[in-house]
Write a structure and sequence with these properties.
The chain is mostly helical. It has one domain. Helix 1 crosses helix 2. The protein is globular, with a radius of gyration of 17 Å. The N and C termini lie far apart (41 Å).
Length: 115
């Protein structure tokens, strides 16, 4: 449903949707990146429009289809946003620079003035 709605809301992404078929071994941290405000607004705009369309079409979006996955069923909106954020970066050919959290913790311990 998500991919169908995404291709309708943002047809320019349709040729790139095969990204979801590949085996992605990275972490999905969701929209935790630091972006220019315009990029973040674009991400949020598309994602909320897709969710709105999905919610109009789904009969009961909170129904648990697989009782073994009830831990995920109540946070599907967040789960999808994590995957869409990574796709959004890919689809828009955005540059990414990852900073290890351990580095940030070490900087904090050393009092480097980042916090």
């Amino acid at each position: 449903m998500f991919l169908t709605c995404l291709s309708e809301i943002a047809p320019e992404y349709k040729p790139k949707l095969k990204w979801f078929d590949i085996s992605y071994s990275g972490n999905f941290c969701g929209p935790m990146g630091m972006n220019p405000l315009g990029v973040f607004k674009d991400y949020v705009d598309i994602y909320t429009r897709v969710l709105r369309l999905m919610l109009q079409r789904l009969e009961n979006p909170w129904e648990i289809k697989n009782p073994n996955q009830d831990a995920l069923s109540d946070r599907w909106i967040g789960w999808l946003s994590e995957r869409f954020y990574a796709f959004f970066i890919f689809a828009n050919n955005l540059s990414v620079y990852e900073v290890p959290i351990a580095f940030l913790e070490e900087a904090k311990k050393k009092g480097l003035g980042l916090f």
